[in-house]
Design goal:
CATH superfamily of the largest domain: NAD(P)-binding Rossmann-like Domain
CATH topology of the largest domain: Rossmann fold
Number of helices: 10
Number of domains: 2
Order of helices and strands: EHEHEHEHEHEHEEHHEHEEH
CATH architecture of the largest domain: 3-Layer(aba) Sandwich
Structural class: alpha/beta
Radius of gyration: 20 Å
Helix content: 25-40%
Strand content: 15-25%
Strand order of the largest sheet: 3-2-1-4-5-6
Length: about 230
């Protein structure tokens, strides 16, 4: 996958090096030449750029990337302007870092749906979430392995868990199933009152809004979710 990270401070540089170590293609951008020099060996592609310049941003391969992450939280004005430019350019997936709740509210108001608060979201966690976009929750075991909560993919709704053969086909372990409430529609939609079944019935058909708790490599979980 391909990512652009704008802002190579402590958080942004860690995110960039994590994604690079995972084998992804990363372009790191900063307007500080000293930072670029510091990370030139750990981030293969780096660029000096003022991301508040719309013409400079337009020169980036915006149609050829999976996500852009703006991590320069300390300069709130530059953060907001950069994200506004990206939003107006209709980049398909944008993630912004906020340094506090007010900053987060501003980003939400300009239409940024994915906002990172570094006090809550580690660089490793964000790396995992970038790859598993539709996961409800991710817990990192290592740089490659996670425990994730995901909805049953539409393709497998109505199938028996045994016939899906998740472990054999995708090398993923099913830890538990959260069964959706049958009658309470709102609870089902908002994931409330799901019943956790550690000892689930493999002969029972999977239904829409069931949540699988699965463990395995990020790449295998992504393959299962997209199968």
């Amino acid at each position: 996958m391909k990512y652009i990270i704008i802002g190579l401070g402590r958080f942004g540089s860690r995110l960039a090096t994590n994604l690079t170590a995972m084998g992804h293609e990363v372009i790191g951008i900063d307007n500080n030449a000293e930072r670029l020099e510091e990370y030139k060996d750990s981030i293969p592609t780096i660029m000096k750029m003022d991301s508040t310049n719309v013409n400079a941003v337009k020169s980036l391969p915006l149609d050829d990337i999976d996500a852009i992450i703006v991590t320069m939280g300390e300069d709130v004005a530059a953060s907001v302007l950069t994200l506004s430019i990206l939003k107006n350019l209709k980049v398909k997936r944008i993630m912004g870092r906020a340094i506090n709740q007010i900053h987060r509210d501003i980003l939400t108001q300009i239409g940024i749906e994915e906002v990172i608060l570094p006090l809550e979201d580690s660089a490793l966690h964000v790396s995992s979430m970038l790859q598993l976009k539709n996961a409800l929750r991710v817990i990192e075991i290592s740089i490659d392995y996670v425990i994730a909560e995901v909805f049953v993919p539409e393709k497998y709704v109505g199938h028996l868990l045994e016939t899906v053969s998740i472990q054999e086909r995708f090398n993923i372990k099913v830890v538990a199933i959260k069964s959706a409430p049958e009658e309470d529609l709102l609870s089902s939609i908002f994931h409330r009152n799901h019943k956790v079944n550690l000892f689930y019935d493999t002969d029972k058909a999977l239904i829409i809004n069931d949540i699988l708790i699965i463990a395995g490599k990020i790449s295998d979980i992504k393959r299962f979710m997209e199968s």
